[in-house]
């Protein structure tokens, strides 16, 4: 019996060593071949699926795999613990708020990608000033877009937000609502359909495009591309320990390649505005 236990112990130790060596070789191989797993969803996923097959990626010796994770917090957590190497989905404000709430799993921003304006849409009103008191506004119910929508309403002069407002804030962080607007939370992807039932709807650009809407042409008000909206610029993010990884940094260069940008501009009708800035630009 004792001999049997010893045999099983030896076998277990041997298997552990083999697995550790195997994992080490696998990680080394991934680094040497430039394999990167990018976590994303919706239009960002489509972009990186295209980039992964592009001759530009091949030229930079980058082998890219994509992984779908639709929840932002889960995607950031997966990036922090190494299930995903880099993620492409979030604005800089969401990134900062996540890091603040998760000090032990902080991420690092590798570089900027784009800004696409969020818009206020209505089939009933043609201008913001036409909207009467007590009007119902439909707002997306996921944290990133809820806070962004409220910031847009503040920019339009419809509400005032608390000083403590951040990327995870919601309706309870409205300081004043002089027009007594009513709010209806909706699933993010239903915005275009809800336009038939709710007087005013706030919709992110990816969802708007999927619903046949062009933010620069069809919205009655949208984010302007200036210093006040720079926190809404999207970034590529990775785990803190990988912030200086040369392979991951190549992804920023790849995204801003001229041919890649031509594809993005054509596919999304110019609504994903290229922002090729250093991360320090976002902190100014």
TrEMBL record:
- Coiled-coil regions listed: none
Cellular component (GO) terms are:
membrane
Q: How does it sit in the membrane?
A: Lipid-anchor
Q: Where is the lipid attached (S-diacylglycerol cysteine)?
A: 23
Q: Which domain of life is it from?
A: Bacteria
Q: What is its main location?
A: membrane
Alphabetical UniProt keywords: Lipoprotein, Membrane, Palmitate, Signal
User: What PROSITE patterns does the entry give?
Assistant: PROKAR_LIPOPROTEIN (PS51257)
Family membership, please give it: Belongs to the nlpA lipoprotein family.
Name of this chain's protein: Lipoprotein
Q: What is the lineage of its organism?
A: Bacteria, Bacillati, Bacillota, Bacilli, Lactobacillales
């Amino acid at each position: 019996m004792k001999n049997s236990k010893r045999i099983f112990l030896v076998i277990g130790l041997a298997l552990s060593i083999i697995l550790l060596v195997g994992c080490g070789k696998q990680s080394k191989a991934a680094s040497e071949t430039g394999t990167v797993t990018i976590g994303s969803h919706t239009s960002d996923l489509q972009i990186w699926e295209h980039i992964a097959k592009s001759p530009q990626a091949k030229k930079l010796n980058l082998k890219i795999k994509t992984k779908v994770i639709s929840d932002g917090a889960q995607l950031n957590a997966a990036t922090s613990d190494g299930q995903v190497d880099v993620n492409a989905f979030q604005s800089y404000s969401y990134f900062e708020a996540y890091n603040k709430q998760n000090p032990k799993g902080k991420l690092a921003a590798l570089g900027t990608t784009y800004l696409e304006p969020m818009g206020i849409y209505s089939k009933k009103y043609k201008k913001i000033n036409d909207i009467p008191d007590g009007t119902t506004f439909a707002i997306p119910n996921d944290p990133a877009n809820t806070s962004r929508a409220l910031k847009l309403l503040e920019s339009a002069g419809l509400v005032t937000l608390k000083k403590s407002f951040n990327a995870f804030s919601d309706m309870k962080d409205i300081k004043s609502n002089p027009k007594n607007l009513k709010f209806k939370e909706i699933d993010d992807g239903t915005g275009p359909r809800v336009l038939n039932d709710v007087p005013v709807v706030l919709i992110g650009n990816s969802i708007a495009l999927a619903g046949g809407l062009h933010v620069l042409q069809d919205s009655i008000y949208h984010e302007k591309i200036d210093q006040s909206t720079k926190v809404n610029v999207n970034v590529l993010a990775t785990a803190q320990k990988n912030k200086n990884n040369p392979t991951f940094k190549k992804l920023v260069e790849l995204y801003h390649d001229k041919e890649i940008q031509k594809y993005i501009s054509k596919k999304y009708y110019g609504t994903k505005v290229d922002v090729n800035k250093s991360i320090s630009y976002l902190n100014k």
